[in-house]
Write a structure and sequence with these properties.
2 copies of one chain form a homodimer. The first copy, chain A, has 240 residues and is of the alpha+beta class. Helices cover 42% and strands 22% of the residues of chain A. Chain A is globular, with a radius of gyration of 19 Å. At the A-B interface, strand 5 and helix 4 of A face strand 5 and helix 4 of B. The first copy, chain A, binds a DNA duplex (30 and 30 nucleotides) through helix 7.
Chain lengths: 240, 240
DNA sequence: CGGGTCGTTGACTCGAATCAATATAGGTGG
DNA sequence: CCACCTATATTGATTCGAGTCAACGACCCG
């Protein structure tokens, strides 16, 4: 099976960077890709990872983490299917990328991709656009970290995940039950690490949302959002 | 006086994007620039600002702010001389840019710059590199907002500002007194808005640092860092 | 079925927010 | 140029939200 074939049946083709570049760039990119399965917990880049890796997430979730020597941990980004993974033009970033769930990654190895970037202005433009969007996202997240209450933080993250999980490209959904049920890609501890909170606080806020009927959880990672609109309200209102 | 002349004597030429592009791009860019003085408090883009503006800061400081309807405010970025100001490829960003001090800006108006970006791959590449650095910076800041104590937050911000203020391109320094004295580009309230704190908390932490002899302040905005190394320690240690 | 990790809940503490009262710089107008 | 006036900064007293410590419960794996 040729690479072209693989790209043609790629589930994220229409939403990834591949959809925004010219045929020539797409062809050159298609030549150097290979699919890869990565188990939960594996570090993709950063830290002691020597080789640069770039890729597009086909399925699964990647977390971007900052860990300080004293153990304090902050998750500074989440990436979902169709997102671009990698940090071009630098190999010294305090951030590292780790598989939050098992992943399917369409990846191209370091040097090759950077050469491609240099040679294909359209590819570089689309990476720039993605990066600018990531920056907007990071800034919205800064507002959350600096100004929102625990209640709002938890509601915001659930809302964000629920929206991404609902996208067709994402296989997080378990079964199209009534509103939206999906498997949470993060543990309680990881949720806390996203939000600048402690696990216990996250649990208490989840309990609150449950008692109000806005969400439901049975098995640990199985989530149902009953009232998406309510959830959004909670994500932006100081309290009730 | 020609534009070329103006560029030749530009104080931030060697550190801005202009230093990283080819002669042809530099020439084309030089054709469309004009200097502008902008008073403290003026909004440069975002909010109700219709016209897109791009530019390079020659002197002064720009703050990037998110304000929510209920009045909660978070500063999500600071930009110093030689930094690039503007948000290409989008006009709907919740962030807006405001002059934190009086500014001197070398600016190019919207459409023209975006066309230039498209036509000059080297210019686009250097904007991409800057954006990636901004993203790294935003993520470091997320760690600060999510995980640092008030003490560390204040020390971190002062350290960051002191480093940028010390750069030759920056005219913040007042007089080369013993260690480093400079004019703070932010009010106490703005410092609080950077850090996800309240004014009162910022004051108390400043008082702490003063009583330890690490910094000194006489007139409100005049700051001296006595012990840069100590300040850095405080920026990263849970407490003392 | 048993062990261990992860999640949940409760009691208490602590750091930063809030509320309130001055103090001081710096600008303004007389 | 000086005295006043206002916005900004500072300090104190108290409250409150989230952190910490501790125990228990439940899901998941072998």
């Amino acid at each position: 099976m040729s690479v072209r074939m693989k790209c043609n049946q790629c589930p994220v083709r229409s939403t990834s960077i591949c959809s925004s570049i010219g045929v020539e760039s797409a062809r050159d990119l298609g030549r150097v890709v290979h699919r890869m399965r990565i188990p939960e917990g594996r570090v993709i880049y950063g830290g002691n990872q020597r080789a640069k890796t770039f890729g597009i997430i086909i399925s699964g979730v990647v977390k971007l983490v900052i860990v300080k020597p004293d153990g304090r941990t902050q998750i500074v980004g989440l990436q979902f299917p169709s997102d671009f993974v990698g940090r071009p033009y630098s190999d010294t970033s305090g951030v590292f990328a780790e598989a939050a769930t098992d992943l399917e990654l369409c990846c191209f190895s370091g040097r090759v991709f950077e050469d491609l970037l240099r040679d294909h202005a359209d590819l570089e433009r689309v990476v720039l656009k993605r990066t600018l969007n990531d920056l907007d996202g990071a800034r919205d997240w800064m507002f959350l970290l600096g100004r929102k209450s625990a209640q709002e933080k938890v509601a915001s993250l659930l809302h964000l995940i629920a929206e991404r999980a609902a996208e067709p490209a994402c296989d997080c959904s378990e079964m199209p039950v009534s509103p939206s049920t999906f498997r949470l890609p993060l543990s309680r501890t990881e949720i806390a690490e996203c939000l600048g909170l402690r696990v216990e606080t996250v649990c208490r806020q989840l309990a609150q949302l449950k008692s109000r009927g806005i969400i439901a959880t049975n098995r640990r990672r199985t989530f149902t959002v009953n009232e998406m609109a309510e959830l959004k309200r909670f994500a932006e209102m100081p309290v009730e």
